[in-house]
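Minutes, project huddle
Topic: does the predicted pose make sense with FE2/S2 (inorganic) cluster bound?
PN asked that the exact inputs be recorded in the minutes so nobody has to dig through chat later. Recorded below.
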Amino acid sequence: MSQKFEEKPGEGTVKLRVRRGVGSDPATDRFDEFVVPMEKGMVVLNAIHYIQAHLDPSLSARWNCKAGRCGSCSAEINGRPRLMCKTPVESIEGDVVVEPMKAFPRLKDIVTDVDANWKVAAMIPPFTPKPGAGEIFRFYQQDVDRSREFRRCIECFLCQDVCHVVREHEADYVGPRWVVKAASLDMHPMDGLNRSKFMKDKGGLGYCNITKCCQEICPEHIVITDDAIIPEKERVVDREYDPLVWVYRHLRGSKEAEAQSFRATGGAP
Amino acid sequence: MGLRSDWKYLLPYELLEPNWRLWSFVAVLAVGFWAVVAFPVAQFAGYIDPFYSPTVLIVPLPGVFRLTCYAYRKDYHRHLFKHPQGCSNADRGEAAGRKYTGERNAVFQLENFHRYFLYAGIAILPFFYYDFGYSLVYSGQFVLRLGSLVLLANALMLTGWTLSCHAFRHLVGGNIDCYSCVAAGNARKGIYDKQSWLNSHHEALAWISLLTIVFVDLYLRGLAAGLPIDVTFLRF
Ligand code: SF4
Ligand code: SF4
Ligand code: FES
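Predicted holo structure (tokens), as shared on screen:
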């Protein structure tokens, strides 16, 4: 925290080091330095806008709402995936280093192409009303408490970026955002599908080693690992590993539909 | 940055890092094994050392319960296998070139049986309370001593850790999608919510309960060595 800034608003400057380049061309990959005047309450996105307006209009950055709602301005700030519009410059000690998300192909400067996510989204077996759900769904608050948490997701894909499986390995893992999505459907009181077999075989849930980086950085404070991933893993255990549950299910005759087929339009990124 | 609440800055950063949990677990296993074999102090003046509490010795299940615990899994994947070591670029360590199968290979798929070790963990909990009770009445009189409170604290922490388990969370209500559709749904949601609160402290309880076991062991060894560290509060 730079106290001097709080005491003298409008005074002082901050140095930004912004990683730039076009596509994956290594010849264009570089860090550019900019010195930007400090303003009270300024966030990293303000500094980027200042650069575009006064220092270098060719700097590309994606943003939309400036309020942490749209999930467009994701970047790696001083080595940590964060929203540029929610990161106060004051909270950073020393120079501000802004880089594009490493897990996705770069388009230009700090703008990345997150399209691979929509392919994964299309793989997740969609909401399927359970038999007898009727035309109008009636359920109680307590039934949707859990899946509501997941609806806070703004699809910033910072969790996908920080997840070492998505980032560092060519694994068929859908990634934390999409486990959150599957969990929000699985835990919905009116959904009739069981996505466990899908999550194990096609979703690659076993690749997650619950190291919780996604949970640490989610700007919406969704408790990704504890509330979505581990419960999904426990459901996979029910379905695929636990002999007692298996016996119980067969004696009782489970009526639950299983998501075997899905709209496959591509693999995980 | 902004992720830790302010009071936590007062503590050394390392103390809050989960690698402490991992390395203290390894150290406790090693030192504990050595001490249990080389210098047995199974019981002293009615206090039963948790390392020798019968089931703990007979069954290595508590160790496996810890090994497959989601908190410890996080620890060793981060700090032993370094997949990844940390979340920020500065300390994550590049793993791109190293083979990674996560929890999918033959060995790590065994993590999926964690719930069975939980059942074993719950089954042995009463023994720790038995040890507490025994320390009160072992002499034929009722005595309340500091050591008994230490045993009780250990039993409570072990209970907290065991009952805050993620597999237990699934069992007590996490497996229900529609609470208003099942019998006693409100009650089950209530239990689930309370357990969820406990579960959010699971990592801390995992570590504290490990330390309390060691503390009880050291306390008993101290008594056996003749240190004047026991206090009697009540006797009748
Ligand atoms: S779960 Fe959190 S980090 Fe992941 S995309 Fe949604 S809001 Fe972003
Ligand atoms: S907890 Fe799982 S999904 Fe989240 S970052 Fe770690 S490996 Fe990826
Ligand atoms: S600009 Fe919308 S989340 Fe940052």
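Observations noted during the meeting:
- Chain A has eleven helices and nine strands.
- Residues A 162-165, 176, 208-214, 225, 229 surround iron/sulfur cluster (ligand 2) (CB under 6 Å).
No decisions taken; revisit at the next huddle.
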